[in-house]
Amino acid sequence: MPYSIAIAGKGGTGKTTVSALITTHFVNTNRTPVLAVDADPNANLNEALGLEYDTSVVDTVDKIMNDGADAPAGVPKGRMVEYEVHDALVESKGFDLLVMGRTEGPGCYCYANDLLKGFLQKLSASYSYVIMDNEAGMEHLSRRTTRNVNALLIVANPSVTALRSAGRIHKLVTDLKLGIGQTYLVLNRINAASRPLEPGSVMADKVAELAEAGLPLLGEVAYDDDVVARSQEAEGVMDVPADSPALASVAEMMQELAA
User: Fold this and answer.
1) Which of 146, 159, 208, 238 is 20 to 30 A from 33, comparing alpha carbons?
2) Full-model pTM
3) DSSP 64-114
């Protein structure tokens, strides 16, 4: 079974960039194959990975369910899902990308959704690591689309507002009992020179408070001018320099999390 990592966080914290950097780290260290899953309806993980995609998984499944008459005689819809969703898989060197697309409403357990979950579980078994970039906020948790993963990383930038949001996400994860192995806080875009976590600071006290509540700090992603510029220009991070401060930070965290 693959080691699965889900990434969540408030909008604007850079969770998609963190997802792409984690994917980059595993590819660069030959811990492949990696499956990167964009579970955000506002899909842009492909841009962070420097890829383009033609169709999403949900759109493909909808087409099968709505145009079932076009399926070959005797072929069950579950098998058609497997055939067609493979076409939504974007293949690259060392990793593949799967864009989920728009999601269904809370509480929807329709036939198509069940088919999709079964296929994704089977597909994931072919990979060493699965990295899932979730939509901003908490709704994906309420829909229970983020469950039974090895680790959930809640990304926050250096602001009290983002840390409070991380705390709310963690509380919901705990209340919903989603079967997540470990849950950690990841601080993003940390400029060491500004010393945001200096002992006695408001930020440091809030991080300590979250740790006491069961959300320990896994690590800090260093502020990186190159990575920030790429994010602003919708350029991929797969080819960031080997000495990238942000990539080095992620490598250190992954060594501790998934050595």
Assistant:
1) 146
2) 0.90
3) HHHTGGGSPTT--HHHHHHHHHGGGEEEETTEEEEE--S-PPTT---HHHH
